[in-house]
Amino acid sequence: xxxxxxxxxxxxxxxxxxxxxxxxxxxxxxxxxxxxxxxxxxxxxxxxxxxxxxxxxxxxxxxxxxxxxxxxxxxxxxxxxxxxxxxxxxxxxxxxxxxxxxxxxxxxxxxxxxxxxxxxxxxxxxxxxxxxxxxxxxxxxxxxxxxxxxxxxxxxxxxxxxxxxxxxxxxxxxxxxxxxxxxxxxxxxxxxxxxxxxxxxxxxxxxxxxxxxxxxxxxxxxxxxxxxxxxxxxxxxxxxxxxxxxxxxxxxxxxxxxxxxxxxxxxxxxxxxxxxxxxxxxxxxxxxxxxxxxxxxxxxxxxxxxxxxxxxxxxxxxxxxxxxxxxxxxxxxxxxxxxxxxxxxxxxxxxxxxxxxxxxxxxxxxxxxxxxxxxxxxxxxxxxxxxxxxxxxxxxxxxxxxxxxxxxxxxxxxxxxxxxxxxxxxxxxxxxxxxxxxxxxxxxxxxxxxxxxxxxxxxxxxxxxxxxxxxxxxxxxxxxxxxxxxxxxxxxxxxxxxxxxxxxxxxxxxxxxxxxxxxxxxxxxxxxxxxxxxxxxxxxxxxxxxxxxxxxxxxxxxxxxxxxxxxxxxxxxxxxxxxxxxxxxxxxxxxxxxxxxxxxxxxxxxxxxxxxxxxxxxxxxxxxxxxxxxxxxxxxxxxxxxxxxxxxxxxxxxxxxxxxxxxxxxxxxxxxxxxxxxxxxxxxxxxxxxxxxxxxxxxxxxxxxxxxxxxxxxxxxxxxxxxxxxxxxxxxxxxxxxxxxxxxxxxxxxxxxxxxxxxxxxxxxxxxxxxxxxxxxxxxxxxxxxxxxxxxxxxxxxxxxxxxxxxxxxxxxxxxxxxxxxxxxxxxxxxxxxxxxxxxxxxxxxxxxxxxxxxxxxxxxxxxxxxxxxxxxxxxxxxxxxxxxxxxxxxxxxxxxxxxxxxxxxxxxxxxxxxxxxxxxxxxxxxxxxxxxxxxxxxxxxxxxxxxxxxxxxxxxxxxxxxxxxxxxxxxxxxxxxxxxxxxxxxxxxxxxxxxxxxxxxxxxxxxxxxxxxxxxxxxxxxxxxxxxxxxxxxxxxxxxxxxxxxxxxxxxxxxxxxxxxxxxxxxxxxxxxxxxxxxxxxxxxxxxxxxxxxxxxxxxxxxxxxxxxxxxxxxxxxxxxxxxxxxxxxxxxxxxxxxxxxxxxxxxxxxxxxxxxxxxxxxxxxxxxxxxxxxxxxxxxxxxxxxxxxxxxxxxxxxxxxxxxxxxxxxxxxxxxxxxxxxxxxxxxxx
Length: 1232
Description:
Elements: H1 5-18, H2 27-35, H3 54-66, E1 78-82, E2 103-107, E3 111-113, E4 119-121, E5 127-133, E6 141-148, E7 157-165, E8 168-172, E9 177-179, E10 182-183, E11 188-190, E12 193-197, E13 202-206, E14 210-214, E15 220-224, E16 232-233, E17 249-250, E18 253-254, H4 257-262, H5 289-296, H6 310-323, H7 332-344, E19 367-372, E20 393-397, E21 403-405, E22 411-413, E23 420-422, E24 425-427, E25 432-434, E26 438-443, E27 446-451, E28 456-461, E29 465-467, E30 473-475, E31 480-487, E32 494-501, E33 509-518, E34 523-528, E35 533-535, E36 538-539, E37 544-545, E38 549-555, E39 558-563, E40 567-572, E41 578-583, E42 591-592, H8 617-622, E43 661-664, E44 671-677, E45 680-685, E46 698-700, H9 705-710, H10 718-723, E47 733-735, E48 741-742, E49 748-749, E50 756-758, E51 761-763, E52 768-771, E53 774-779, E54 782-785, E55 792-797, E56 801-803, E57 809-811, E58 822-823, E59 838-843, E60 846-851, E61 860-865, E62 868-873, E63 877-881, E64 886-891, E65 899-900, H11 925-931, H12 947-950, H13 952-962, H14 971-974, H15 980-992, ...
Antiparallel strand pairs: 1-59, 2-3, 2-15, 3-4, 5-6, 5-16, 6-7, 7-8, 8-9, 9-10, 11-12, 12-13, 13-14, 14-15, 17-18, 19-20, 21-22, 23-24, 25-26, 26-27, 28-29, 28-41, 29-30, 31-32, 31-42, 32-33, 33-34, 34-35, 35-36, 37-38, 38-39, 39-40, 40-41, 43-44, 44-45, 46-47, 48-49, 50-51, 52-53, 53-54, ...
Helix pairs in contact: 1-2, 1-3, 5-6, 13-15, 15-16
């Protein structure tokens, strides 16, 4: 049993009084503890039969009454911040609350404060272990320091600091920062490490969970992540949450501060350094106590009293005043440390400094503040303070109403005076610049732009490389006439291009002919590769001017065509035929063809005439062929340079199968085969295949002019009908008779029965498919789709590979923190106007919740779906994380056009996705990415790394491994999802990972492609899920495409996302018929009646109390998972002053952890002060009694529930408390 409440309160008072004495006089504290001990208990430090010592229980209880929870330190990882309501059981401390228990510090005249709150003085001048990771296995960090005597009789100064974090060693002096033996300038960023310097501090941040701050004089602060609890040693103590223990009181032995400090000495063979000896405090020191109390309780520290133990700093101040009586400056360090600790504790100290008391000066027009945000708004980062992850501290700051001018160097200025910056050039407020498509003016550090008439351009280069009007690049090796671009308004004009094989393989193609059909096909202008121009089959001399177009030849290498309908053509003739188009802005969204639809959205450039977007260039281009007799071409996934290792080209090889091509000869020669033999070309006749046609098709012989005059079947297909029929030349072969159309599958159909094509698949009339959140139906060869607004998705994977909300692919491999997506300023209205109250960090394969003190509440849920962690907020944000290097961010349609960041602006225009923080659209990925760095001090990325070039030994391995993406393993997916960008990203990432994690990088890259395939309903290769199956059971199975039929306790109660996440890859249960519902919380299959009740998204298990607005009515979740209510006993209607009694909701505010002396402690203070009864149970197995659970716990109406991990050793394999919850019965007097 635990200590009685009165005895515990007495012990708290005894501890408080004992802490008022110097640790050098530790017997006072020890005596106070001894006097307050329970009767029958042994010597301090001696464990009782029930587990912990009575001292430890007392200290834990006192800390539980007055100390804060866990503060999560600064670490790298993906963060999501919103105004969310976190359940009370998941409420770690936020950055603005007390995190002093994560901080160790030293200052002034040899003063130290441990992580656990002990303040002591140790006058050592040797090298000491300030704090280290002291686990027996892998040690993550160590901090050593050396003090030297003060200058001119002042306080001793910290001469240097030696910090080791994993593989990095940082050496700091007041003047230098040295990393791994090389001097670095600040700020310095390297993987997982940041070193920066400002007017007040030198700071080091590490992703390992460490922050170090040094004022380059006598003050040093170290903040650690809570994962290091109970794992440290050194002058900062063991970080176990217990004062004195293991530092000054261990195994019954008491150590003085000097003894403890000397034990932390770093012995160097070549250095002789004497240990300090015990000293006596002069009696005259007490005369300074009143002065110190007055200073530390001044009005400036009003917000600090009660947050920071005053007595410790009064004693330190008295010691300072006594050791250095010559002036008030001796106590400045302790006053400053008290102020800093106040900020750590969540307080806001005022400006206690004066012109005569510890004055501070700042450069320029900056002002000194005791508690300001270290993330100072600047002209380039106006909103950085709102995203700040750091804690408030003292230093020089800009006055209120100003920002720091980090562009022009003007100090602190009003925002209206901020310059703008573009490509390294500064622009004053009001200055204007003109770009191709915008005219912009600098206004308050941001560009205000308006659109200018901006033509689009399309290029067909090298006979296969196409760049659309919206900037999408793809390669297509065609062999037919194709629609390059055409007007979708009355078919007023069209531009066709003939691609043909011109080399030794069908992957060497050339542009042979360009055909312009103007004036609704009344004028046909043909441009040949030899420079010949034909108008309606007659050769014309240049220049030629007609009513709707003109052609002239400025040089022997080029032809220029201008039209009256806004199309301008430049035809290059030498060395090969290439085509460059320019189209007026008025045609935006009104054209189709291989050049795309010119609507500003790169992601839908592969939209066919049938109405859907194809996945690959070949499947898209095949839909725009003009001649139905042309075969469809395939995507070529091989490296073109692999044809010839030496030259990267394929040359004709005499005597082999190389060097032959099929050539269409003018009738009546027919088809011929051109073969290279013995250095000479030979033409062999080839018999046409299919001269006997399968009914109902008929054979057409272009050589038989008589037959053509009798019947003139049109060589139409459903595909060319959708693209638009354009007669080119007669092609012999099998065609459908009049009245029927080739269906593309070998048959003939009437137009109404034309099939639809999507991603190389054929769909019959009436077939339906799902495209995102819409349903499309095949009608007359075209798709008719519903028009629902869908969520947008941004994908970030691997080493900086991005797919924006609007479908733009790009790479940006930065080296610090960046804004992926945020709500744009000026759009914080209505339901989107939420402040950032809750911050979620996704790191180390789990989530961390950080609560802020201010902001609105917005509900959110987290859940495991397959191998992914899904976080969903009620404001329309979903984050899906594979717990490695891939993240999916989904936004509701209501966010369209209101966001910005590395994920783009979600306005269905990808050509403006590269909008910088200062509102300028740029072309460079580097300019764009650098603008979204979170901190202005982060250095810019100046070049895109080429890891395979820097590490050529990795290329062959990377290409071999990543070739699986283009291999038959994923062949079914190649027509659904273009593998090329994922293969390139895989090679990039696999070359990057050469110092460990090779397979991790490779597997994550392949998984990114597999996930996209899964979304299309295709199954990637399998994995095994037996890990999740209990012995002799096979309930869990790998589902590469997710489990779309899985019902969960949440989904049957309507607690689910507005969009489906069932496609996510991973292990899923296949629940048996007698337990058909999956319980996501208990992670097992259950009956429907075991799911419990869900009220406002909160779950209540069967038998649990359900909250009600009527305090004298009780409600509970019945065994059938129905909410039932009844009048509570003691209803105020039955007696005038009868008590109203009720059972509280189940309370589960604490959760056990596997490290340290953690456990589970539940209190009832928030419900009532003196409950009449209490019930305790396991949170996940509520049906089991405490005896059946078999753990040593305490459930008492006087203090609540206590379970300690250390009590469980020997009772099971893990020695960890289960998660428990309590409820109490409260009775309140009620008037009639």
